[in-house]
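Hi support team,

I submitted a single chain yesterday and got back a structure, but I'm not sure I'm reading the token output correctly. Could someone confirm the output below corresponds to the sequence I sent? I've pasted both exactly as they appear in my results page.

Thanks,
R.
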Amino acid sequence: MQHIQSYIEEHKDRFLNELIELLKIPSVSADPAFKEHVFKTADIIKQSLLKAGCDHVEVCETEGFPIVYGEKIIDTELPTVLVYGHYDVQPADPLELWHSPPYEPVIKKTDIHPEGAIFARGACDDKGQMYMHVKAMEFMTSTNQLPCNVKFMIEGEEEVGSVNLSKFVKTNQEKLKNDVILISDTGMIAKDVPSITTGLRGLSYVEVEVTGPNRDLHSGLYGGAVANPINIITKMIASLHDENNRITISGFYDKVEELSKKERAEMAKAPFSLENYKKALDIDAVYGEEGYTTNERNSIRPTLDVNGIWGGYTGEGAKTVIASQAFAKISMRLVPHQDWEEITQLFKTHFESIAPKGVRVKVTPHHGGQGYVTPIDSIGYKAASKAYHDTFGKTPIPQRSGGSIPIVSLFEQELKSKTILMGFGLNSDAIHSPNEHFGVWNYIKGIETIPLFYKYFTELKH
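Hi R., thanks for writing in. Yes, this is the structure output for that exact sequence:
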């Protein structure tokens, strides 16, 4: 496309400043205390899409937070690209581990990002990556180089399971009709090793509750005579993995796809340094299911992890009690063919069955979604590959991600469209963690690459 680099260079400071202003808003969907900020962000996204050249933009109400829909239809005979992203962010806790306030964005140089990275909650997941598409749209409309139709669907509930998106998609199929769905909510292998995500893991997220006595008890008077829910829940959780770190839930692996030696060998070609991996995480050894490499464990194998556990007294000083209740939040990352609702039921049945007498167990499902695999011989994938090749000077590597974007499988089911995952983040960007950041170089590179996807997709489609 003509003049894309010069356009970006001319407007780079504005692109960064607009993103920084967006990142200042704590649009945390999980915490009701931030409700007004989430709604405010939706309005800002609406205005941004209008300024970027959309002819029609609306904030669509749901039972929760709104979905921002925008479109520019230049010719109904041309292909249509549907862009999906989200404007809500994860909670910033624990705040004390941030080196700078999470909603006061700053650009700092790092070893990986010597040109600077934007540090703020949502910088990479997903405000920064979502906003690349808005600015790419601006470039194409401002220079009269938009080659096809475009639609945007930006939601505010991704971080809490997209609870209302499925209803919106099912009731707006004609409005959302498209030829391909484009998402940037994933990453790439490295700044000099572009990659396209071709697979996502599914997710089952549950909360468990173990209840013992009807009140907290004195640990001296009752200790050793009454089941301690905290002791019990930790034993139950520990039993969910065997000595080889395989999950012990009956039926859990029944539908797990076993990749061939050839496919695993192809995966192994991706550049990876185990020593650098351990160094970046400040660990002296990796850990996981026996018989698989680190990259296989975090992408093509299912997992079960405790995300939080609590009960009893956790304040300052000592309080010798046996807690009445103990709680834990548990997530299971699933591979394609594992049905998240089936796995949730298997977990519930198993966890209840291993509870000893003297306690009561409650399992509450929160949310989940299916895994997804996209073919590398599709027009969409080929267009993305050509776009990356133009801007990076090398062909991107297809890779499966360990993360989950549950709505991707929903899109294929309801809209009959394939999704292309063009992520520009890095594993080191600390998404969902303190000090989340997104490289300035990555942000700009995304704005440069995305318009080329439109160009090649339109050419290949016609």
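A quick pointer for reading it: The chain has two domains: 4-200+371-461, 202-256+302-369. Let us know if anything else looks off.

Best,
Support desk
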